[in-house]
From TrEMBL:
It comes from Paracraurococcus ruber. It comes from the Bacteria. This is Glycosyl transferase family 1. InterPro entries: Glyco_trans_1 (IPR001296), Glyco_trans_4-like_N (IPR028098), Glycosyltransferase_grp1 (IPR050194). Residues 194-353 form the Glycosyl transferase family domain. Pfam families: Glyco_transf_4, Glycos_transf_1.
Amino acid sequence: MRILYSHRIQSRDGQGVHLQALVDALRTQGHEVRVVGPSGFEKAELGGESRLVALLRRWLPPAAAELAELAYSLPATLRLARAAAEFRPDAVYERYNLFYLAGALVARRRKLPFLVEVNAPLAEERQKHGNLRLRRLARWTEAFVWRRADRVLPVTEVLADHVAAAGVARERISVIPNGIHPEEFATPSPPPTEPKAELVLGFVGFVRDWHGLDAVVRAIAAWQGTPRLSLLVVGEGPARPGLEALAAELGIADRVRFTGLAPREAVPGLVAGFDIALQPAAVAYASPLKVFEYMAAGRAIVAPDQPNLREVLADGRTALLFDPARPGALWDAILRLATDSGLRARLGAAAREEVQQRDLTWDGNARRVVAMAEAECRRRAGQVAVLGQPVTG
C-alpha cells in the first residue's frame, strides 16, 4: 500500500520512537510510506523539543497559544494536501494531536480511508494537567477528528472507552497497543547457579516525581538483608536531581545510577542488565513502551495492578502486580522477587513468550494497520461499484 503518515510531533521522545518504529515496520513489509509533519522533527535530537513551540508556550497567554495550535492546522493541511496530490496514497494514517485537523480534512477531501492512532485523551489530559483554557473548542476538535476517522486505533481498551464516549461507534474502534522489535532483544542468559550478591532494579524512561522512585531509593537504603540491591535508571527527567540528592543523603549514591538519555539501540543491552524491571506507576489509559521492552528482554516485572496494564500483564504469570493504593505494596513485590530467583526466571520467560504468542510487535501492528486500511479500501470500492450499477425495472 501507499500510506500517507500525518503527525504533529515536535520532539524525539516516546512519541517519536512509536512513530519511527511503525513506519519502519510498514516499509520493511514492502509498503510505501510518506511521512508529513513539522520540519523540526527530522532535525530534533533524542529528548529534544522545538524551541519555537517552547517559546510560544512560555510567552503567549494560554488561550492564544491554543489558537496558534489550531491555526497551525492551516499550513499543515496545505502541506499534507500537496503531499497527497504528489504521492497519491491509498490511505491516510495520523497520530492524533489536539487542535490538529490536517489528516481529517485532507482524507475527506480526497475521499481516502482515514485511520487515527490515539495515545491519550488529550483534551481531558491537558484540562487536568496543562492549564487548558479553550476547553469546549478542544473537545470539539478532538471529537471532530475521531468521528471522521474510518478506524480509530487507541492503544488500550481503557482509552477505547474514552473514544466511544466521544460518539465513535464501537465497530470503528480497534485497540492496537505499543510493541517492540523482538529481534533487538537477545535471548536472556540462563539463571546463575549461585545466588547473586547484588541485584539491579531497573527503570527505563523519562522519570518524573509521580513515578515514585524516591520510595524505592529510601527502601534500598533501609534494606539490611541479602542480596544487596541497587537502582539503574535508563533515561532522564525532572525527578533526577532530587533522586540523586536523596541517594547521597542516605549514603547510597554508589547504588543509584542514571545513564542519562540513552540511544535507542543501547536500550536492549541496558535492560538485559536488570534483574527486576520497574513500572512503579502508570497513567490509567497508557500503553507504556517500557513494559514491552521489559517483556521482550525476559525481565521479571513489577507493575501496578490497574486495568490498562492487565491488558498485557497477568499477575503471577508474566509479572507481579501490586495494589498502588496500599503503602509499601511496590516494595513488597520487589522483595518477593529479590528473594526468589526461580520466580524471577519464570516470570521473565513467560513475559517474553507472551510477546511472541500475542505478536506484541511493531511488525504485528503494521500488519493490523494495513489489514484495516485494505478492508476500508475494499468497502469503499464496493460502495462505488454499487452506486455505479444501472437502475433497471
